[in-house]
Amino acid sequence: DREAAAKVEQHLKRAKPKVKQHERILRALIHPKAHADKRTDFPLDNAALDSIFSAADEIFFNGKLSRRVHWDWTSEGKHASSSSSRRGEGGVSRIIGYTALRKAMQKDGYETLIVLSSPILKDTSYNRRLLISTFLHELIHSYLFICNGFEARHCGGHTPGFKRIAELIDEWEGHGTLRLCDIEADLDRFREE
């Protein structure tokens, strides 16, 4: 767990030109141009998630997630137990994403399936950082599952290694932007104004 987090930290320190390009892409998705009208921003659909995935895998995880992570969306009203929940109105916990682990079908080791809450994450009353933050949160779980297997489930998946990687990504982007260190973030912090 801590060894996997240390590998992320080492990889971040060795920035390469290719990684710099991925950093620009991910930062542009997190912070669309300030002059753009919020309502005309392109939606964060599966194509955008592909870009986020590719960028995050190169920037933080040194390509370890390639062909080992899949994702899907829940349908309206479908809920499941989760590793990623957020507090919304009245302090009610709402599940917005979770990661499932299984033995890899095509390779040795493990692969994951990230399931994202369509009703919450596609709700336009929240800004795009909620979806990006949730997706990155689940990618951290995926990385630790792929590196450590079922042992990464300790502490509800929020192990010391998870917390360290979340902290590294928050530092990379600037504290208060993605809030990955907030295991249960307040949905209201992601509301559009």
Report the C-alpha radius of gyration, rounded.
16 Å
Number of helices: 6
Helix-strand string: HHHEEEEHHH
What is the number of E strands?
A: 4
Uncertain spans: 78-83
Proportion in helices: 40-55%
Average pLDDT, all residues: 83
Shape assignment: globular
Distance between the termini: 38 Å
Give the biggest sheet.
4 strands, mixed
Decide which structural class fits the backbone: alpha+beta
Task: Please tell me the total number of domains.
Answer: 1
Strand order, biggest sheet? 1-4-3-2
- What share of residues are in beta strands? 5-15%
Keywords, please?
193 residues; alpha+beta
Question: Would you summarize the structure shown here?
Answer:
The protein has 193 residues and is an alpha+beta fold. 41% of the residues lie in helices and 14% in strands.
